[in-house]
Amino acid sequence: MNKRRAIIFAGIPVLLVSLVLAGCSRPPGPIGGTVPPATFSSNGQRIYFTTTSDSGEPITYTGGPGGMMQGPLACVTCHGREGHGGTVQFMMQQFDVPDITWPELTGPDPDMEHPPYTEETLKQAITRGVDPGGGQLEYPMPRWQMSPGDLNDLVNFIKTLK
């Protein structure tokens, strides 16, 4: 009986470590598991995937999920590789993230909440957190700070998302 109990107790740490590691892994999809391309076709794509710029200019943000993220925050973190968004989870919270493909942004809003995006209103959404009608974008959308050139490059990359 003591030998059997020793075998059972010896297996518990292995089981506990396995459960902890499984619970700490990130789910597949836009949050976690998003590996950037090996090379970037443009500065805008680099910014979208890594929040770093070819120019070396810092790209930072205010607002947004802050310390809840595991690792650096980038557009791809929530909006996904192709910009389609969806439901994402940050720790114990769940958010619906909009599709930011160019046809979706510039098409008519079926809910008539605001006019379609233009290049300029998309820049305002990225940097000031406002939609084309002047309404505030919902949490957890951060307000990004970047150079005008980097912002143009990012918008030009977003225009390729379909």
Question: What's the helix and strand layout?
Answer:
Blueprint: H1 2-24, H2 43-50, E1 60-62, H3 75-79, E2 86-90, E3 93-97, H4 102-106, H5 119-128, E4 143-145, H6 148-158
Antiparallel strand pairs: 1-4, 2-3
Helix pairs in contact: 2-6
Would you give an account of this structure?
This protein is globular. It has a two-stranded antiparallel ribbon with strand order 1-4. Strands 2-3 form a two-stranded antiparallel ribbon. It is 38% helix and 10% strand. By secondary structure, the chain is α+β, with helices and mostly antiparallel strands. The chain is built from six helices and four strands. Strand 2 and strand 3 form a beta hairpin. The protein has one domain (27-158). Helix 2 (43-50) packs across helix 6 (148-158). Mean pLDDT is 81; it is low at 12-32.
